[in-house]
């Protein structure tokens, strides 16, 4: 299936950055995803796995550390971005941190529009929390390529160490995998050392087979992460779509030895939903994938619900949003 | 490091145990001792055997072993309750079923927990599958109760029904049995499996709370001996059994000739076929659902994994990877995939099979899952290097043991899939709809799931082909199993043969001597034995001779019928053309047939010939009108109930109406695509031997109809014993019926022992849907859709 020698691939360890491989169209043609079966797997999994009590608290904390704390709103200003950064540094009330007896957790990154990267960087200065910038004509990816590439370079120059680019969906819809491959490769080059997260906009891709093919092409072109959605599509992250992307990541890893991360974005607001995503990753890819290195949730409101659930774990009482600082 | 931080680093699932105390409280309310539930109350408990929790061996309750007297009084109580239950309106019966459905839902967790501690299956399954499906079954049939009289015209309730259910889905199997029986107007005596009686007992109590009239439902606990009392009891009208093929055979034997209706849902070795164009990762999850559902203790478990050679290696590694993430543990843990096997006996049985598998050269692969140290646990197991000649590929293990075999083409996949004595279910994985439907149409199984597996719903029928049993449970086809025709068409007490006591006169010599042969494979053949039998006319005149058929003639005829199976594949319209042509050609020779009948019976045969022509015409019309239905399945699924031919038919004709009865039995069978070996009337076989000339001139393909003349009592047993005969109809006396049913156990062929001396000319009892239903078996084909 793959052009990469599998013996060589087996020697590679999980920490290697995916350099991409030559576009393998043969691999794409044998992708077939049955939606009914994928949906059944998701429904089934919800009944097969659960975490309770202290284990649940640990998993909730893990979810917290995988959040790309995000604001991508037309009304974003310096003030709300600064407030979000403050929340990123201390995502959990200190009394809760003490009660849990853990080292103060941090979210994985703060994710903003390019023009707010500098503000975010200075607010987070010293915290070690990276700033992620969306780029490349976000959210539709339909501005001219050179503009989009410049945007990536600029975001990086402004201090973004992670770049969430969107693909132009027409490549997928017209089946021009070569075009998609070349474009993502160009972004990868423009992103340099910054982590490249490739947003597929799965809500626009028509079917799950396209999701699977687009996932593979993005990885072949050198994506560090593949990401479900911009949060601006009518349908954003869903579990069946995530299942397909995770299986693509597994197949890619098995074939090439290169691990690629997964980011679910858009619509994940409840701790319960986040746990479903964690369990899905755990089942499909394994525990090694469940750290901020390879798994992200793009969200903002989720953090508050995680805090509420953790407080419930400590006190046994159901908590309220207003008891937790807003981001 | 703190507790949480450690857990944060480890990131394990941790235990997630369901609280079982409500179930233990319920048991304690009964002081952990139970009698039988007869006539709406508990009998004095016998404390005869213990019900254990297989996950830890602890004793849950002491139960009573049903004696002959217990069974007798349960059946008496059901009999007493029958008339008042039937005098209720369908709506009133429906109300009780509706209340039961509601009560199952209201007590769903109690049922789930009780089932889990009694059976060992994971709480996920009892909570998400067994109990909701059981409730669904009662809802569905609550709706049938008021509809059944109108929707199943010409039928009435069977009467008192004895039901025996297995231990793998205790409550669900109870629902599958009790709901349709009650909805159709019957009363019930049910025996749960001795390992798992508790949910049935909880159900009995709940039915009491719903106000179900006493005696309508009786539950007698006990082992196989109690089951035998129930089976052998004369006063039941029907038996329904789910369990092993072995016990199914015994029940068939025990009830042979009793006139009791019988449905059997037996074992399987179901194929799970993965084509190279399948969504492989989804198919792997299908495998998990197929064989590691309920620890593999599932009659329709996809235990034979058939993978196309071109993807076999990749698929095998995917299955192995998936096996490593399966979790086996306490059945009450909400995050496990497999719980405990039902009993140490079952565990030993599975271990024995695995040993045989290894000895025969199979390669055993088990993932390193953590098994609890105590209790009946067995890891998910995969065997490779298995061939169809190996025990593991042929016998039902009834455990979490999967065998993987490969195939090259879809042709070979179909052959391998059908290369089994069973025919319960099959699963096909392909993204090519043409391929999937083609294979589905060729699999000889009662259920086919495309790109899915182990899907169940009350609205669709479930049941097997071949040695997986007969009768359906669920849906319209399942309801028929609890109804019978309004006219009493039980077999005759004595043979109507009346022709051998007569004085014989020699043949008139005005015409040339004729030789009537047998008709086998489209050819006229001489009897193998070289003997003939005389045919005596009404006046005592010797009319001629027909061949004295023997077992070899039957063998040849069955062989011919089997190789004519293409008949089932041609279109209904084409079959209709042949039947119309038969009608035409018979009519053209009506004078001759009328005369032939007259010489035998002394009465003009004209009317009988005309009726026979009409009957042929009628079934020619039915060819493309006896249709399947599309079930109201769960959303996102199309479930097709397809009536399919059963295969090779043996037909034993009555003495009455030699031509018309023969045509009435033969034509529905061939109209539906079956092929036939027919033994005609002994007294008037010339109608049949003349009829083969009509067959030969009407484009009936060779082998579709085969006629063997001779003694019914010596030919019928050969047909009944023949493993390539799939169904046998006998319109003869009860004793011959009993012999046939006793001998039918070899391949568990479907039998219909019915009245020969009926008024065949009456189209209400001489033809119709009853014949067509019995000439077909229903395949339920599940086709999910979604893109």
CATH topology category name of chain A = TIM Barrel
The proportion of strand residues of chain A reads 5-15%
Most residues in contact, chain pair and counts: A-B, 38 and 38 residues
Model regions low in confidence, pLDDT < 50 over at least 5 residues of chain B: none
What's the tally of helices of chain B? 27
Please state the overall shape of chain B, judged from the principal axes of the Cα atoms.
globular
Q: Give a quick account of the main beta sheet of chain A: strands, pairing sense, barrel closure.
A: 8 strands, parallel, barrel
Sheet with the most strands: spatial strand order of chain B? 13-14-15-12-11-16-17-31-25-24
List the strand order in the largest sheet of chain A: 1-2-3-4-5-6-7-8
Structural class of chain B: alpha/beta
Main sheet properties of chain B = 10 strands, mixed
Global shape of chain A: globular
Whole-angstrom Rg of chain A: 19 Å
Q: Helix fraction of chain B?
A: 40-55%
SSE-based structural type of chain A: alpha/beta
Assembly state (oligomeric): heterodimer
> What is the straight-line distance between the termini of chain B?
48 Å
How many strand segments of chain A? 8
CATH architecture of chain A: Alpha-Beta Barrel
**Domain module tally of chain A:** 1
What's a quick, concise take on this entry?
The complex is a heterodimer of chains A (327) and B (787). Chain A is of the alpha/beta class. Chain A has helices at 6-11, 25-29, 35-48, 53-65, 78-89, 94-100, 117-124, 145-157, 170-173, 177-191, 208-220, 239-256, 271-284, 301-315; strands at residues 67-70, 109-112, 131-135, 162-166, 195-199, 225-227, 261-265, 295-299.
